[in-house]
Amino acid sequence: MPYCVRCGNPLAAAAEICIECGLPTMQARPLPADEISPKSFGVAVALCGVFGTVGVHHFYLGNFLHGLFDLGLFIASMYLLFGVNHSTDFTLVFIGFGLLLLDFVHTGIVFYKLIVGKQKDSSDRLVTYPGQRL
Fold first, then answer.
1. pTM of the entire predicted model
2. pLDDT in tens, 59-104
3. 3-class DSSP state for residue 126?
4. What percent of the chain has pLDDT over 90?
5. Strand partners, 36
6. Domain for residue 123, yes or no?
């Protein structure tokens, strides 16, 4: 007897959808083991939530160039906000805030992708949350 890959409910042999969760049975397939990242979901989410603007989560997932870009954005914004004398011109302050805002928005997008199980590591494998089978 076949079972639904999402909820585990037994399916009738000719069923087109699962009665319990509504998943179409023809589209349902579990992820092969080689498409799932060995990286920990919890560690990736925690690093993104705490150190997201610095890009530590990208280094953890093996995306080194992406991590260097995030780190560069953060360092540039901090330099423009605090490392430059702003006695006459505040243009650099606005650029620094813009870079920091861009870094926050990017971190929010990556955080969302991690939470819903759509973020990939450097080997193009999904960082899946516990119980994610699709």
1. 0.74
2. 999 999 999 999 999 999 999 999 888 777 788 889 999 999 999 9
3. strand
4. 54
5. 126
6. no
pLDDT at 121: 93
Cα–Cα distance for residue pair 32/20, rounded to 1 Å? 24
Angle at Cα 101 formed by Cα 51 and Cα 118, nearest 5°?
Answer: 55
Q: Which residue's structure tokens are 């006695």?
A: 87
d(Cα 116, Cα 16) in Å, to the nearest integer?
26
Kindly report the backbone phi and psi dihedral angles of residue 126, in degrees, each rounded to the nearest multiple of 5, phi listed first: -70, 135
Tokens 């089978």 sit on residue:
133
Residue 11, domain extent: 1-30
Same domain, yes or no, for 22 and 78?
Answer: no
Write out the H or E segment, with its range, that includes residue 13.
Answer: none
Phi, psi angle pair for 120, to nearest 5°: -110, 155
- Could you identify the residue written with the tokens 């650029």? 95
CB atoms within 10 A of CB 120: 15
The pLDDT of residue 22: 76
Are 12 and 47 part of one and the same domain? no
Residue 126 located in a structural domain = no
- What's the number of domains the chain is made of? 2
